[in-house]
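Changelog-linked ticket: ribulose-5-phosphate example.
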Amino acid sequence: MATQEELKRAVAQAALKFVRPGQVLGVGTGSTVDLFIDALAAAKIDVPAAVSSSERSSQRLAGCGIRTLDLNDVDTLPVYVDGADEIDPGFSMIKGGGAALTREKIVAAVATTFVCIADASKRVDVLGRFPLPVEVIPMARAYVIRELARLGGQPKWRVGVVTDNGNVIIDVHGLRITDPVTLEARINAIVGVVTNGLFAARGADVLLLGTAEGVKELRRP
Ligand code: 5RP
């Protein structure tokens, strides 16, 4: 039986086929993406530069000799590779376990194709067992917690975590998200919210799912 780490390594390796030689690549954040960056470096594919979604990934890319570009200096981004905390049958996701959700969502918005790399444990029928991360301007923390509680979940401040953008994270526990597009927009409309970890308006296009039977390549339905 393959371990979760082995499944992550397998999808990281499988994602290499989506990398376009000679073109700038969008790179997400997390332990699966760390393995993808390592695989990318080992494969020696001609990637002129990457746009990174976090300081963590930028450092790892630099350690592998891959330079990073400011997104503002890039007009198009053919491919973005990133992980997920949960992904549903419609390819909506919960992301932000690593607190990088805002930059991830910005890079994903620019990318033409979002390739999600995930081990089988991330595939769920309904999103919400994983607490939904929300990035919040620090002075709005208590207000946003009160507003999020009105949506039915249990919001909890992720104490001690400061995002790359200098903000705080609130994780909403106990949600059962049957309409992710509507909930994403509703939470983003709360004043003080920078963005939330639902990637539904812009979900994944391709899912590379690491299973005991091998990596499954699935397209958005
Ligand atoms: C970080 C993310 C990650 O993609 C998500 O947390 C998955 O991480 P991992 O690959 O470590 O399981 O959204 O903000």
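Closing comment: Example verified and attached. Residues 28-32, 82-85, 95-101, 104 surround ribulose-5-phosphate (CB under 6 Å). Residues 31-43 form the longest helix (13 residues).
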